[in-house]
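Researcher: Next entry in the queue.
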Amino acid sequence: MINGIRRWSSITTEDFVDMAGSIALLPVSAVEQHGPHLPLGVDALINEAIVTKVMTFAPEGLSVMVLPQQVIGYSEEHQSFPGTLSFSIETLLSTWREIGESVAKAGLRKLVIFNSHGGQNELMTLAARQLRISTDLFVAAASWTHLIDLEDLVTPHERRFGIHGGAIETALMLHIAPEEVKMERIDNFISKGQAVADVSTHLQPTGRNTYAWMTEDLNKTGAVGDASQATSSMGKEILDRAVKGLIEFLYDVNRITPHSS
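Model: Structure for this entry, 261 residues:
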């Protein structure tokens, strides 16, 4: 078994001995428009920054193999904007499932799907269920946004409506890759979803009771949220919390006994 956290692609086939105690970590993201001020690779850059920083901490008692990040995901809600890349749901689920099946064949018993694109939360759950059916893997799925609390850092309004290229993602990019941010294009990209929420008891763009939308339904620029709130220091704090959240999640999975044991 490999000690610590290693890149799957950095070890040899001879190292795959007694891997039942190791966790495979599959980072999944997207390449899609993030408004006029952020690059297409936001989700991939954020995911890589979190995983890389987790690796530098080398948490004790964990054996984690980091699989190559799957940078193209399901992004059809952004297809009206040039540059967006997307698989179909069927192709993406098949890809994730086949990667998971290869992990199982390598002797590992646990897989964590780690996501940084909000449009894939439901698909992760489906992929995990499919892998439970086809393999003996214990499969857990998490999005970094679900592993942290930003109540003291981001306004309630922005947490609710700033879902794409708003304060949170812009702050992270100002910390991770400030050279990629078009500062002169930063703005408050107000969500039209507010109007729906204002006249609804339960309905809103995201959450438990939502409706189908394309990104331009929320804001014609492709960004949704107040990017003007973002600062580099905010981004650093968000990143640190996401790293802590992922480490805690990996420890959670490490404590679980696989189904067939």
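Model: The longest strand covers residues 23-28.
Researcher: Noted, moving on.
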